[in-house]
Structure formats: structure tokens, C-alpha cells
Amino acid sequence: MRKLLLTVLLGMSTLVGFSQIRWDAKLGMSMSNLSKIDPNGMKVGYTFGVGMDYAFTDMWSLQSGLMFSSKGYKATEEDGEYKWTGKANTHYLEIPILAAYKMNITDNMKFVVNAGPYLAVGLGGCYTDKEEYQGEEDKDHTKIFKKYDMPDGQGGTTSEAICKRFDMGLQYGVGLEISDHYLVNITGQYGFINPYKQDVYKVDADGDPTNETISPKNLSFYISVGYRF
């Protein structure tokens, strides 16, 4: 995966001198979750970075860039005076590789549809586990990508992190290009890789773990604005 990321970065750097390339800066809000986790909740975060648009024709282009984005999820359970909250907050560097199709709406506005794979590497993050009961609170923080010693199931220990550092999946979106400079984008992502190294167990109607494991994936939704130079 690291070799693939380096190859993509080197490929992007070789395109800098071409006149068909334009660069942009983007900033927006992320809303993320995990598939197959119940109960779960959407976590709000950020996304920002630089983008590249390499035009083949007036209608078709290749889009890529470097984006910093937060992902994760929230889960909450309540029973009388007892409340439990779990929240994962992860930070990724992402490289999308998208084919984009552009349609003129007016002389100064284009509608854009894009889709393609994305690659991501985790930069950091933490998992917060909080229990509240009768006014008392117990909270625990764990760094998601840091390795910890834990039982290996065979009487020994192994050094493992909670989450895998690399992720990849499908990215797709729609947007507007206004007056050849201003960008408005709505983007979705569906991960292909279970981010957790340990087994994730399905819970029953009472919220108790069962013997059935599941394979959750990162789900993300972004709303962003940008300026193309």
C-alpha cells in the first residue's frame, strides 16, 4: 500500500508543468459512520486539502489531490440512569483518483459528476469510551493506530493496534463549477476494508455481543467548497 501511495504521488508531481492542469483548494464538513454497526450515530468532522483537475477535453477530466479528512462513528446506549457512549475519531490523508464528466448548465456554470477509487492512510485518532451512572462519569481514551500488548488467544501476547492504518474504497460525487473558479461539491465514500484488526461482534436486541462477527466499513459524506486557480 505504501508503494502504491508513493507511485500515485510521483505520478501527480510529473503533471505539474502541463497547461491542462489546474489546482484548487477545498474546505468542508465530513459526516462519517460505520456500516453494520448497531446502534450507531453519525460523527461530524472536517475535510480540507488541495485538488488537481487535468482536462482531456472540455467535458472529461482526471481529478485527484491530497485531502485531510476525519472519519469515525458514535454509539450510545441508555438504560435508566446508566448511559454508555463510544466514539471513534480518526484522521486520514486521502488520495482520490476520479474520472469527471462536466456538462454546461449556463455560460458560467458547469455540473460535474465524478467517480473512482480512493486511497487513504491513517495519521492519528483516538477511541473514547465513557460510562455515566448516577452523576458519576468514567472515561477512557485509546489511541487508535498505536500498538498495544494484548492476549493473542494462545496464552501469550501480541502487539496490535485497534485499527488498520490503510484504507481504500469507492468515491463518488456531484458538484458545480461556477465562473471557472468557484467549486461546490457533495461527495460520498464507501470503504472496501474493515478498519478494525480485532473481531467486531454483532449485538442482539438487548445490546449484548453475540458469537456472530461482522465486517464494518468506513462510510463518509462530505460537503465542501473550493477555489480553482
Task: Estimate the strand proportion.
Answer: over 45%
User: Low-confidence stretches at least 5 residues in length (pLDDT < 50)?
Assistant: none
Largest sheet: 10 strands, antiparallel
The protein's oligomeric status is single chain
Helical amount: under 10%
Structural class: mainly beta
Average residue-wise pLDDT: 86
Q: Based on DSSP secondary structure assignment, what is the total number of beta strands?
A: 14
Shape: elongated
Question: N-to-C SSE series?
Answer: HEEEEEEEEEEEEEE
Number of helices: 1
Radius of gyration: 21 Å
Give the distance, in angstroms, between the N- and C-terminal Cα atoms. Answer: 31 Å
Task: Note the topology.
Elements: H1 2-13, E1 21-34, E2 43-55, E3 60-79, E4 82-96, E5 98-106, E6 109-133, E7 136-143, E8 148-151, E9 157-160, E10 166-178, E11 182-191, E12 200-203, E13 209-214, E14 218-228
Antiparallel strand pairs: 1-2, 1-14, 2-3, 3-4, 3-5, 4-6, 5-6, 6-7, 6-10, 8-9, 10-11, 11-14, 12-13
Please explain how this structure is put together:
With 229 residues, this protein is mainly beta. Helix content is 5%, strand content 68%. Strands 1, 2, 3, 4, 5, 6, 7, 10, 11 and 14 form a 10-stranded antiparallel beta sheet that branches. The chain has a two-stranded antiparallel ribbon with strand order 8-9. Strands 12-13 form a two-stranded antiparallel ribbon. The chain is elongated and about 65 Å long. The two termini are 31 Å apart. The model has no long low-confidence stretch (mean pLDDT 86).
